[in-house]
Amino acid sequence: MASNKNININLKIWRQKDAKSKGKIETYKLDNVSTDSSFLEMLDQLNEQLINSRQEPVAFDHDCREGICGMCSLYINGRAHGPDTKITTCQLHMRMFKDNDTIYVEPWRSKAFPVIKDLVVDRSAFERIQQAGGFVSVNTSGRTIDANATPVPKHDADRAFEAAACIGCGACVASCKNGSAMLFVGAKVSQYALLPQGKVEAADRVLNMVRQMDEEGFGNCTNTGACEVECPKGISLENIARMNREYLFASVK
Amino acid sequence: MAKSALLKSSLAKKYWMALTGLFLCLFLVGHLIGNLQLLSSSENAALHFNQYALFMTTNPAIKLLSYLTYISILFHAIDGIVLTVRNKKARPVNYVMNNPSKNTIWASRNMAVLGTVILIFIVTHMVTFWGKMHFDKAMPLQTMTISAGGMPQEFYLTTDGGYVPKGQVDQGAMVIKNRTEFFDAGANVKVKEGYKDLYKITVAFFKDAKFGLIYTILYAISMIVLGFHLYHGFGSAFQSLGANNPKYNGLIKNFGKGFAIIVPLLFAIIPIYIHFFIK
C-alpha cells in the first residue's frame, strides 16, 4: 500500500528538560515526511533534523517497534497512540495525517507516571502493582506438573489469553479522564483469576494489587470506557468488572 | 485488611456509589408513581393526592425508607465529591490538546457537574414541598366548597372521611391545633384531623402568576440533567458492582437508557401539565 507521498507537518511537542523542570510546548516544522513512515520514524527524522542543527533531540520511549512491547506511548492530537484504534504509536502511520497538519505530541499525563524527560514517563508504578500480586507462585524444584495436565475450559482460556494480551503501555491511564489504572489491573487480575493455576492465590492477589494501585496515586474508574477504546490490545471493560467482583468477594471473605 | 478494603479502597467507593445510586433509582420510581396522581382529572384528585401525602409522611415503613433515601443522597453526593477531588489529583498536569469525545460520551465525563445540578434541584425541591409539608406552620388544610340550597359553604375535609364546617372554626367552636387537629373548643378534646393541602401548594407553585412558568422550565431542565446523569449512571452502577456479562449487558444498557429517558420525561410532564392545563 505504498503511497509514495511526502507531506509537510507542524509539530507541537512537549519539551521538558528533566523531572524537576517545567516543560512547555515547542513548535517544529518538518518537511518531506513519507506517508509510509511510522509515527516513530517521523520522530527519528525530526531528531536528525534537530541534531543537524545542534539542538537537543526529543526524548521518547520505543523498543520493539512492532506493537508488542508496550514501550512507545505518546498522546497524539488528544488521543493515546494517536488517531486510530487498536494500535500502538509505532503502528501509527503518517498516512493518517494530511499535508500541513498540526500535530500535538504530549507525554502520558498521570500523577503515577511522572515525566522523566520530554515525552518519556516513568511507568514503574505498573511494575510495582505487578509485583504486588501479578504472578503465580510456582514450585520450580524440578518436579513441576505439565501445564496441559490441568484441564482448562476453552472459554476461560480464551478470556485469560485476551486479558494477558495487555502490554502494560499505560494508554488506559493516559486516556482516562481520572487517570485510573483499572483496565490494566483488571486485565492482570483476570488473566490469573480465570485459570485454575491462578485461582489459588486469587483473593490475596486482587486485594494486594488494588492496594498498590491506590497507593501509586491512580484515579478511580467512573466507567467512561475511554480506556477500552484506546487500548492497543482491545482489552475489554469486562476485566474491570471481573476485578470488581473478585475484590468484592475477597473483601468479605 | 478485608475490613478497610470495603471502606477505604478505590473499589469500595465505587461499590457504595453504585449501591446508593441504584437505591435512588428505585426511589425515583416510587416518587414518580406517587406524583403521577397529580395528572388525575378526577374531582377527588386533590383529596387522593393529599391522602397519599399523609400516608407517605406518617407510615413507619415509608419513614424508614425515606431516612434511607436521605442517607443515600448524602452518601452519593459526598462519595462523588471525594472521588472527583481524587480523580483530579491523579492528573496534576492536563493535556494541552485533548480529544475525549472520540472515546467517551459527554454524560459519562460530566457526572459530577450533572450531579451537582441535581443536588441543587433536590435541595430547592425539598424546601418548596417537603419542607412545607413537614415544618410550615402556615400549611393550608384541604377544604371543599359545597352548595347547599344555593348557599355555598366551605368545609374542611377530615381523615375519617367526614368534614368540619369552616364556619365552626371561624366562630371559635372548633380550634385547630398541631397544624392539623380539630379540637372542640369547649371540651378541649381532639375531634377530627384534617389533610395538609399539598395538592394546593403544588398547583399554586407551578401556576404562580409571576414565577410559575420559570419554575416549570427550571423543573424540566433539571429533569433533562437527571436524564443525562441516569443515562451513564444506571449501566455504570452494574459495571461497578461487577455485573458485566455479555449475555445481559445489552439488556442492562437498553433498560438503563429507557429508564433515563422515560422516568425524567414523566416527571417533567407533571409541572408542564399543571402549568398549562389545570384551571
UniProtKB/TrEMBL annotation, chain A:
Residues 157-187 form the 4Fe-4S ferredoxin-type domain. InterPro entries: 2Fe-2S_ferredoxin-like_sf, 2Fe2S_fd_BS, 4Fe4S_Fe-S-bd, Beta-grasp_dom_sf, Helical_ferredxn, SDH/FRD_Iron-Sulfur, Succ_DH/fum_Rdtase_N. Its cofactor is [3Fe-4S] cluster; [2Fe-2S] cluster. One of its GO terms (molecular function) is 2 iron, 2 sulfur cluster binding. One of its GO terms (biological process) is aerobic respiration. Belongs to the succinate dehydrogenase/fumarate reductase iron-sulfur protein family. This is Succinate dehydrogenase/fumarate reductase iron-sulfur subunit. It comes from Flavobacterium cerinum.
UniProtKB/TrEMBL annotation, chain B:
The keyword Glycosyltransferase does not apply. It comes from the Bacteria. Keywords: Membrane, Transmembrane, Transmembrane helix. Coiled coil: none annotated. The chain crosses the membrane at residues 65-85, 106-130, 213-234, 255-278. One of its GO terms (cellular component) is membrane. CDD domains: SQR_TypeB_2_TM. This is Succinate dehydrogenase cytochrome b subunit. It comes from Flavobacterium cerinum. The lineage of its organism: Bacteria, Pseudomonadati, Bacteroidota, Flavobacteriia, Flavobacteriales.
